[in-house]
Amino acid sequence: MKKIKKVWEENKVLLVLAVILIICLVVVAIVSLTYFYGSSDNVYGDRLNEIENTPISSKLLTDIESELKTNESVLEVESNVKGKIVYISIKFVEATKMEDAKVIAESVIELFNEDELSLYDINFTINSLSTTDFVGYTLMGSRNAAGNGTIVWNNYNIQEDTEEED
């Protein structure tokens, strides 16, 4: 007991600082773990809480696919939902013009109701294969739920310079 009293008397300041340091490290560890790991088991966190009230039904996805397949220019259609994004992939026959493909894809927006359009982003992927007479294309388009309702199209095709030099 005398040894402990002697160590305490000689090192009061250092021992108090050591205790304060240990307490601070424990607090930082607890705060870091709760901040970075959280308590949610959901991959998306709480961003998807809104869509529980307005889920995209499998019937709507089937209606989208059947609506697009009624057009003779469409070869294949796939649609699915991940989180707050509805993905629609459309493959067209070779002779379909790019502008016509955009119009056909945009026609499915009418199948969504206002609640769905205000919550879900819609992404289109449009493909048309190349042939000897036709240059194919790949387009991606997005409609943001928080946007102004238009679809923004991106053309990922590399255009070759076909002009002849004189």
Structure, described:
With 166 residues, the chain is α+β, with helices and mostly antiparallel strands. It has two domains: 2-37; 49-155, GMP Synthetase, Chain A, domain 3. The protein contains five helices and five strands, in the order αααββααβββ. It has helices spanning 2-10, 12-37, 58-69, 98-106, 114-119; strands at 74-82, 85-92, 121-128, 137-143, 152-155. A hairpin with an 8-residue loop joins strand 3 (121-128) and strand 4. The model has no long low-confidence stretch (mean pLDDT 86).
Topology, number of strands: 5
> What percent of residues adopt helix (DSSP H or I)?
25-40%
Number of domains: 2
SS-derived structural category: alpha+beta
The whole-angstrom Rg is: 30 Å
Q: Please give the largest β-sheet.
A: 5 strands, mixed
Straight-line N-to-C gap: 104 Å
Broad shape = elongated
Total helical segments: 5
Overall pLDDT metric: 86
Amount of beta strand: 15-25%
Order of neighbouring strands in the sheet with most strands: 1-2-3-4-5
CATH class bucket of the largest domain: Alpha Beta
Q: Write the element-wise H/E pattern from the N-terminal end onward.
A: HHHEEHHEEE
Report the CATH architecture of the largest domain.
2-Layer Sandwich
Detail the poorly predicted runs: none
User: CATH topology of the largest domain, what is it called?
Assistant: GMP Synthetase, Chain A, domain 3
